[in-house]
Amino acid sequence: MKAVLQNSGGLSKRVKVGFSWTTFFFGFLTPLFRGDLKWAIIIVIIEAVLGSFSFGLGSFVTGIVFSFIYNKIYIKELIEKGYQPADEESRVLLQEREILSRTA
């Protein structure tokens, strides 16, 4: 499912809610292409550290874990930057997934 977020300047972003297949297949490149340099670096560091101690298995597990949580992290950071749901359908979707509080 996708939600549409819009900032006060009128710029809108269509974001996927839920499992991130792009993160699953491309790892840190997903946040890098989205312009989320902070999380790209965090993922690289975690994968490098865990992968070095486990002959690469830790890196694979990290990729799976971030596939489940990265889209939620990305949406929350967009909301912190001033983006809001553009329509009621997006608001309800984000509230159901507990990304946006019911009072917002």
Structural write-up:
The protein contains 5 helices and 3 strands, in the order ββααααβα. It has helices spanning 21-26, 29-33, 37-53, 57-80, 88-96; strands spanning 2-6, 12-16, 84-85. By secondary structure, the chain is mainly α. It has a 3-stranded antiparallel sheet with strand order 2-1-3. The chain has one domain (2-96). Helix 3 runs antiparallel to helix 4 (57-80).
The ordered string of helix (H) and strand (E) elements is EEHHHHEH
Taking Cα atoms only, what radius of gyration do you get, to the nearest Å? 15 Å
Estimate percent helicity: 55-70%
Q: How many strands, which pairing sense, and closed or not: the largest β-sheet?
A: 3 strands, antiparallel
Instruction: Estimate the mean pLDDT confidence.
Output: 93
Strand numbers in spatial order across the main sheet: 2-1-3
How many domains? The number is 1
Global geometry = elongated
Structural class: mainly alpha
Count helical runs: 5
Describe the structure using short key phrases.
mainly alpha, three-stranded antiparallel sheet, 59% helix
Give a concise summary.
With 104 residues, this protein is mostly helical. The chain has a three-stranded antiparallel sheet.
Task: Summarize the helices and strands and which ones pair or pack.
Elements: E1 2-6, E2 12-16, H1 21-26, H2 29-33, H3 37-53, H4 57-80, E3 84-85, H5 88-96
Antiparallel strand pairs: 1-2, 1-3
Helix pairs in contact: 3-4
